[in-house]
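writing this on my phone so excuse typos. first protein, seq and then structure
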Amino acid sequence: MKRYFLLIIACGIYMGSKAQTVDDTIPNIPEPKPVIRVGYGPVEIEPQYPGGMDEFYKYLDNNIVYPKKALREKVQGKVFITFIVGKDGCLTNIRAVRSPSVELSNECVRVLDDCRFIPGSQLGKPVRVQYTVPIMFDSEHPSEHHQIPKAW
């Protein structure tokens, strides 16, 4: 019985030592090629509204109509709108990611649907770029919708 036990232990040690051997040969793996992220990754030239972000918020101030229901109920706050600036500068996939009301979201989407940007580019070619912008609604100042981030 002791012999079988010692034999099993010896086999286990032998197999364990074989499993831990290291193959010192390095396989011939080709060098990875650099990946350039186009679409929603970093771009060389960001999309711009003609005239800059100040003009963009002036466009919003001139075109957004505070929804009567939201104004009557004094609904206010920031609406965060995300959209994709296409290769031709048109905005697609416009949607609110956060909003105090559906009425405010719908108004932002309506106004941005007619908006055009100068497209972004990567390696000299136009690319699609995703943007998110805050649009402010204040029932005390219903015609002002600008919320210019400090980075702009």
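second protein below, same order as before
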Amino acid sequence: MFKAYGLYSHIQANRMRSVFLLGGFVVLLIALMFSFALIFEAMGPDAPLDVIVARAILDVKQGWPFAFGAAGLWFCIAFLFHQNMIDYATGSAGIERAQAPRLYNLLENLCISRGIPIPRLKIIEDGALNAFASGLREGNYSISVTRALLDHLTDAEIEAVLGHELTHIRNRDTQMMVIATIFAGIFAFAADLTFRNWNFPFGFSPRRDDSREDRNGGGAFIAIVIALAIIALSFGVSVLIRFALSRSREYLADAGSVELTKNPDAMISALRKISQNATIPAMPSRMQAFFIESPALLPESGWLATHPPIEARIAALVEFAGGRDEPAQAYVEPPQEPPPSFLPPGVGPNAPPPPGPWG
């Protein structure tokens, strides 16, 4: 039995875990509704904290259909235009076969040999070595690679990277990541609205006088502080969930690439080279989890990491896929060709002197 299947023993567990993680977004959405209800009630008639909380709970019970309807509307917009949003955020652009015949041939050979629908190919004009897959449904999937990755990796290594991204598509990882990013956008929007536009507590705050605070123990103020804490916590947890979804799937995508190409050494070599120059400083933080390796200038670690460590991914391929870890050559910028000269050949300051009459 092919050794790479050792990693696939965790597929079902990871998929179930991802379902539970995405289910957590529903809980966070309800928490977000409650926080805004708290702020709304705190700005209303004078009342102690327990009354404000009771009113906020009633508001949530009465208003949840509207909140979920608004979230559903945002999801529909993102479903229809998510690829345009992703292309704009990452700088991806479509590329024709005539512009990259080598890339098209490698992808088509890999897909045809395995009976996989061929996704669209896109290019990111950047000097980093990186790639990602995106899309929600059949006919909408795409794989984007950077120009430097195409220039510096061998055919076998590019094939391994394409196999990695195809596995994300086959396992529906791209769907999960797009959905997670879309829902995370709701919490980011709410956090920006609250902390940037309102600028509480240094700018906006509910109007209150000393007599009101004396009577109610500062109930409105406490309610708003609780609401802001819930909004901040919801945003933080949504980010952690999105990062966890990415980390749990990179191991499976590496193993899936080995299954498709039957070449674990190429996957290991590609990861080594990519890790030396994966940084795309201008890449938005919400898009970093899509890539084969984090494009962040200073990648986070631990719970805040979007990807597992390269060393851990390579160790898994060595142990379960029978790969060999050989040191990759240092990344070297390609030499720049001198500008073309307007002088004819053999003419110029460096040209040899013409022969004299005696030879």
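The CA atoms of residues 127 and 148 lie 5 Å apart. thats all i got for now
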